[in-house]
From TrEMBL:
Record-level Gene Ontology MF annotations: acetylxylan esterase activity; serine-type peptidase activity
A single BP term in Gene Ontology: proteolysis
One Pfam family cited in the UniProt record for this chain: Peptidase_S9
SUPFAM superfamilies: alpha/beta-Hydrolases
Enzyme class, broadest EC rank: hydrolase
Peptidase S9 prolyl oligopeptidase catalytic domain mapped to chain residues: 116-276
Signal peptide range in chain numbering: none
Designated name of the protein: Acetylxylan esterase
E.C. number(s) listed in UniProt: 3.1.1.72
Protein's organism: termite gut metagenome
Keywords (A to Z) from UniProt: Hydrolase
UniProt-listed Gene3D superfamilies: alpha/beta hydrolase (3.40.50.1820)
Lineage of producing organism: unclassified sequences, metagenomes, organismal metagenomes
Length: 288
């Protein structure tokens, strides 16, 4: 029995190593960023989190060749628009996706530092890069979605409602997302870091994404926990209601417990359930 366990463990390590070896990075802006976020301190990486990001990039995790479905997910980790949780809201999901035939791309986007347009510039650019490289990366340009967590969920929901023909996602997945600017429901830290508490109603409404849903917004899957005290589950509910009002095929799952920020943590009570729903939904929605 012990020998069997050891062999299984070795095979698991080998598969993780293969994924890591096959992944590769690409700078988002080859000729330099179009505008500065004003951050001049060096980027800080520790304990799976990254802050002080002023030079964005993407890490591409190609799907296992024998299982490749052509589906791709662009992942936006969260962190309140001041840092990014690159592991449990990034690479952990990416490695799991590749095992299931889905190419994953983790976006290390710039922190806004009160320059509200900068994260959206980065996620739109990342989506356009994926479409332009679809043939060489063996992905289907019509099966590219965006997925985000918390403030990264806000960024993903912003892309889902603010896009042009090349940057429009084909589907979206939002985990405990910041969505609304409503003072009673918003995550004030994320909105402050993005918009600098502006009084400009045009900017506030622009990023209150439940107000920006249109009939051409892509289908969306939402996850939240009922006991989330950091980002109220009403954020997901408001977005789902706007999607439903526009007759957009979408699904909302509010788990009884879990709080905020669980991502790919395997000790989360609904971890397996979440994975099953996520994989089934993506495969179904991209088959339509």
């Amino acid at each position: 029995m012990k020998k069997t366990v050891n062999i299984t463990f070795v095979l698991l390590l080998m598969s993780i190593s293969i994924v890591a070896q096959n992944s590769f990075k690409m700078k988002l802006w080859k000729d330099g960023v179009p505008d500065s976020n004003g951050i001049t301190t060096p980027m800080d990486e520790r304990n799976g989190r990254v802050s002080n990001i002023s030079d964005p990039d993407i890490t591409i995790y190609p799907a296992y060749e024998a299982k490749n479905t052509g589906i791709t997910v662009l992942i936006c980790p969260g962190g309140g628009y001041v840092q990014l949780a690159m592991k449990h809201e990034g690479s952990d999901f990416a490695e799991w996706f590749t095992e299931n035939g889905i190419t994953a791309v983790v976006l290390k986007y710039r922190m806004p530092n009160h320059h509200h347009q900068i994260p959206l510039e980065d996620v739109q650019k990342a989506m356009s890069i994926l479409r332009k490289n679809a043939v060489s990366w063996h992905i289907n340009p019509n099966k590219i979605g965006v997925m985000g967590f918390s403030a990264g969920g806000h960024l993903a929901s912003t892309l889902l409602t603010h896009f042009d023909s090349i940057s429009r996602p084909d589907f979206g997945v939002l985990f405990y997302p910041v969505v609304t600017s409503d003072e009673k429901l918003t995550h004030k830290g994320s909105f402050f870091n993005l918009t600098d508490e502006t009084d400009d109603e045009t900017i506030i409404n622009y990023y209150s994404n439940e107000k920006q849903v249109k009939p051409n917004t892509p289908p969306v899957l939402l996850f939240h926990s009922n006991d989330d005290t950091a980002v109220a589950p009403e954020n997901s509910v408001l977005f789902y209601e706007a999607l439903r009002a526009n007759r957009i095929p979408s699904s909302l799952h509010i788990f009884p417990s879990g709080g905020h920020g669980w991502g790919f943590n395997t000790d989360y009570a609904y971890h397996q359930w979440m994975k099953d729903i996520l994989l089934d939904w993506i495969n179904l929605i991209t088959a339509q």
